[in-house]
Amino acid sequence: MTQRSSWFNITSLGLGFAFLYLPILILVIYSFNASKLVTVWGGFSTKWYAELWQNQQLLDAAWVTFRIALVSASLAAVLGTVAALVLARFGRFTGRTLFSGMIYAPLVMPEVILGLSLLLLFVAVGQERGFWTIAIAHTSFSMCYVAVVVQARLAGSDRSLEEAAQDLGCPPFKTFFVITLPQILPGILAGWMLAFTLSLDDLVIASFTTGPGATTLPMKIYSQVRLGVTPQINAISTILIGLVTLGVIIASLLAKRQRLAQTKRG
């Protein structure tokens, strides 16, 4: 019975990983396809990566996307951390239920509704749509993911160290930066990486809040896919996959190093 269960688990896990990652692997392989037809293998070649650097429109869209992701992820990391601290450290207070509901609402709200509501907001306040409206929109929906990750990290941290520091006369702000922040830093980094990836991937919300000169890479790829996929799209998608994978590996190594350092100090 145990052996059958084990084989079933292994098979299910293998099928699950194949379903998730096989399409990505195929995309990476076909980015090195010499043929102009993305569905026909014409031999190994890196010419599409060379031609990609001559496609200024794709490069401009990628640069806009990277800057928006960097700004929105950083803002979301700060705001999400503050929200997590309020929920984890301030106990019961008037309006806590409403506050937590507003923080977690974007997790379950359809992106179409978020995008439309943000568009109406920017129109109502007379804000010209462009780079900063997309960055604000991405911050508003990604900070909730940071708050969830950091709050879970706060729940598992040792609060007695903070209380001991404050009993010895350490001010609250210094206690946070010296004691609390190093403990929750892996969670903040994980939340930042998640927010950064979500911003890179977003199409719906960016489509509602964009303006002239602020075309993101997902929007550019979507507009070109409707006319037919080109090997250059496979190439730039492979580069993005590599960058995100590298970022995840670096974040994991930093978190592991910090855990080892804390273990040695303990």
Tell me what you see in this structure.
- With 266 residues, this protein is mostly helical.
- The protein has a single domain, classed as MetI-like fold, CATH 1.10.3720.10.
- The chain contains 11 helices and no strands.
- Helix 7 (159-167) runs antiparallel to helix 8 (172-201) and helix 8 (172-201) packs antiparallel against helix 11 (231-265).
- The protein is globular and about 70 Å long.
- The relative contact order is 0.14.
- The model has no long low-confidence stretch (mean pLDDT 84).
Nutshell version of this structure?
The protein is an all-alpha fold and 266 residues long. It has helices at residues 2-30, 47-52, 56-89, 96-108, 111-124, 131-155, 159-167, 172-201, 204-209, 217-225, 231-265. The protein has a single domain, classed as MetI-like fold, CATH 1.10.3720.10.
Termini distance?
43 Å
CATH architecture term: Orthogonal Bundle
- Number of discrete helical segments: 11
CATH class: Mainly Alpha
What percent strand?
Answer: under 5%
The Cα radius of gyration reads 22 Å
Which fold does the CATH topology refer to? MetI-like fold
Q: Could you estimate the helical fraction of the residues in percent?
A: over 70%
CATH superfamily annotation: MetI-like
Poorly predicted sequence stretches spanning 5 or more consecutive residues: none
Descriptive terms for the model:
single chain; 266 residues; mainly alpha
Describe the SSE topology.
Blueprint: H1 2-30, H2 47-52, H3 56-89, H4 96-108, H5 111-124, H6 131-155, H7 159-167, H8 172-201, H9 204-209, H10 217-225, H11 231-265
Helix pairs in contact: 1-11, 3-6, 3-8, 3-10, 4-6, 6-8, 7-8, 8-11
